[in-house]
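FAQ

Q: What does a record look like?
A: Structure on top, sequence underneath. For example:
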């Protein structure tokens, strides 16, 4: 009787896991089928990997499919690896959170007050290299942490160190890469290998220093129009050292999550500080007291030419969701959030692009957005080309719009909802973008 009951329970559990895996896959498929996602997904729940699946191609030109061992550039999620290495050096008493870094920026007024913890929590006030007009040119040449820091040394601080967080501080992590080199005496890729990757026995993670990529590394792609893809422009990933140069797999990322949150790699006191840090941003993570999930949630996303990434970890729910994509789109964040909701039995939105979209506007229409918009007081222009609709940003960048309903779209680049309001005669009068509204300019 006991054996029969056990067999019955195992059959029920197997059917439940199969149904859940089917739910995950059905949720992801529309993103993949519409060329808005290509990559790997891994979900762990209560200590078991309940879903691990690959979609699309790592090399579209040669029809080589993504697989469990495919390696992806993970953009800003790379900060987790730099942070873990720095925390490890602190554990080894080679640094402290209060160590100042003024000697690394000798020409920057106030840099002598910047501490390691200011850099880790992105509260340094440093000028940000990614905002420089020549940053695109910088990425066309091999860089070192020192050459990147030299570009900002001498620029004024935006605010007193340690007082606030206003934006992602890419330069702060360039400085941390210089610090790792200085402490270890090795170039950043070797320093990371020595401090973090070798001790934790990572199998497929490395810092891209512009060397030849292994065959298992995914090629990067970007949206072309509303439905197609094209190769992303080539860059020197050494220009993103410390903040966005890591290449890894979903399995290695899961290993990092366990090492930081559950393991002994970082001292328990230091781990507690990381997990309970007062700022919302720190150590390569966002921390949220989520009302939706009813628990403290840690997450991070990243986006860089040809790639996008997302991870969410909810310790008390025993849930980790990892989404890596070799398509330059913010869709992985929405995919990861939706998968977490499915895993926890919560309501979730689905993505259903229209197979044939009606023409949105007969002629270009501009909309003026408020000062607190992503680009202050931006004038955005909507126009249609045949059946495709686009938004033109003030910079000239075009966002293809994926139609999901009557006068409703998703911005394909930034994955934000877009909705058009018309007057009774059908004339556009307002455009809603995310939580902002722009009035038509006549």
């Amino acid at each position: 009787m006991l054996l029969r009951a056990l067999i019955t329970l195992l059959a029920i559990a197997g059917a439940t896991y199969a149904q859940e895996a089917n739910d995950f896959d059905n949720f992801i498929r529309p993103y993949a089928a519409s060329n808005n996602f290509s990559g790997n997904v891994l979900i762990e729940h209560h200590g078991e990997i309940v879903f691990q699946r690959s979609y699309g191609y790592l090399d579209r030109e040669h029809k080589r499919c993504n697989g469990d061992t495919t390696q992806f550039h993970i953009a800003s999620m790379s900060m987790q690896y730099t942070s873990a290495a720095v925390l490890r050096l602190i554990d080894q008493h080679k640094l402290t959170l209060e160590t100042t870094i003024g000697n690394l920026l000798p020409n920057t007024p106030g840099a002598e007050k910047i501490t390691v913890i200011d850099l880790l929590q992105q509260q340094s006030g440093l000028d940000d290299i990614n905002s420089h007009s020549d940053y695109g040119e910088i990425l066309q040449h091999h860089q070192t942490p020192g050459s990147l820091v030299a570009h900002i040394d001498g620029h004024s601080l935006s605010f007193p160190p340690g007082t606030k967080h206003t934006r992602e501080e890419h330069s702060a992590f360039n400085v941390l890469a210089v610090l790792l080199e200085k402490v270890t005496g090795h170039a950043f890729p070797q320093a990371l290998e020595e401090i973090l990757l070798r001790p934790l026995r990572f199998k497929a993670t490395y810092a891209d220093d512009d060397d030849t990529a292994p065959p298992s590394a995914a090629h990067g792609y970007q949206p072309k129009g509303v439905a197609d893809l094209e190769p992303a422009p080539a860059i020197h990933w050494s220009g993103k050292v410390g903040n966005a140069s890591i290449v890894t797999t979903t399995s290695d990322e899961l290993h990092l999550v366990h090492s930081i949150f559950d393991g002994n790699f970082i001292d328990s006191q230091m781990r507690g500080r990381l997990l309970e840090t007062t700022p919302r941003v720190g150590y390569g993570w966002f921390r949220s007291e989520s009302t939706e999930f009813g628990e403290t949630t840690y997450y991070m996303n990243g986006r860089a030419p040809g790639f996008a990434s997302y991870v969410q970890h909810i310790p008390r729910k025993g849930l980790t969701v990892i989404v890596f994509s070799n398509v330059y789109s913010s869709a992985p964040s929405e995919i990861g959030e939706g998968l977490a909701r499915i895993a926890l039995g919560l309501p979730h939105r689905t993505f259903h692009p229209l197979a044939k979209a009606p023409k949105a506007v007969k002629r270009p229409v501009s909309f003026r957005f408020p000062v607190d918009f992503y680009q202050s007081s931006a004038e955005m222009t909507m126009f249609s080309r045949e059946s495709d609709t686009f938004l033109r940003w003030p910079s000239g960048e075009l966002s293809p719009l994926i139609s999901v309903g009557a006068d409703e779209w998703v911005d394909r680049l930034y994955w934000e909802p877009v909705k058009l309001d018309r007057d009774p005669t059908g004339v556009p009068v307002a455009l809603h973008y995310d939580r902002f509204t722009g009035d038509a300019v006549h």
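Q: Is there anything notable about this one?
A: Residues 72-343 form a domain with the Beta-lactamase fold (CATH 3.40.710.10).
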